[in-house]
Amino acid sequence: MIAAKRILRKAQRQLACRKRKIAIEEIMESKGDPTTFYKLVRQQRSSTSMGTEFLTLNGKTAESIEEVTQTWAQYFQQLATPTAESTYDDLHLGKIQDDINLINQICNSSHQDDIPTITKDEIHTAIYKLNNSKAADIFGITAEHFKLAGPSLITALHCVYNRFIKNQKIPESIKRGILTPIYKKGAPDNPGNYRGITVTPVILKTFEHIIRQRHQIILEETQSRLQTGFTKGTSPLVSARPTYRVHNRI
Predict the structure, then answer these.
(1) Per the structure, how many domains does the chain have?
(2) Domain boundary among 51, 71, 93
(3) Residue 136 φ then ψ, to 5°
(4) Is the dihedral of CA 48, 51, 54, 60 positive or negative?
(5) 156-185: pLDDT as tens digits
(6) Which domain holds residue 34?
(7) Counting Cβ atoms within 10 Å, is residue 107 exposed (0-12), middle (13-18) or buried (19+)?
(8) Are 119 and 88 in contact (CB under 8 A)?
(9) Would the pLDDT of 50 be above 60?
């Protein structure tokens, strides 16, 4: 009887794994169609989705829904916690720490009065740049809510965002998000074979759009014309031809 149950559970896990792989392939193939992509992601996140029935972390296997959920939380917490690795490149680590120190120095030496206040026009533009048909955030809010709210919301956000700038701090409450593990490949019980996708609050996305647009203007004025990577309207391939020519002349 016990052996039969084990065989049945193994068959059920194999079937669930095959269904999960098919679902992930559909998600990956639908990246060119944002509507279909996010629809499939929402299905993956739903309570009826084909989530893994068991998960193994640090030699321990979780089988119940509660244990699997706790294991996911533990896994992603470990990913976000810095650890001392003996094989880590100390030179690279030193450069990163120098960059962090420089950023902190610039932030500490800047004055709030030097930062232009956010305008209602900036908020209006940022809201209408939000993509529709996306999953709701942790507060149950979507981009459509912001777009249909009208001028009253823009007035409220104008006060909130400028308070962020004045205090030079963003509340922890809107830094929260809904993290969904999406299966990639390999053993389905290994958390390392999943990619985490986080849905962040719409109020934070709108603020990020505003900051990004301001930074984009600065970059366009100061960035070298030879910089083609991560630059709108161009590609690293643009640099390939002149680089090839220079290489052949040397």
Answers:
(1) 2
(2) 51
(3) -70, 150
(4) negative
(5) 999 999 999 888 889 999 999 998 888 888
(6) 1-51
(7) exposed
(8) no
(9) no
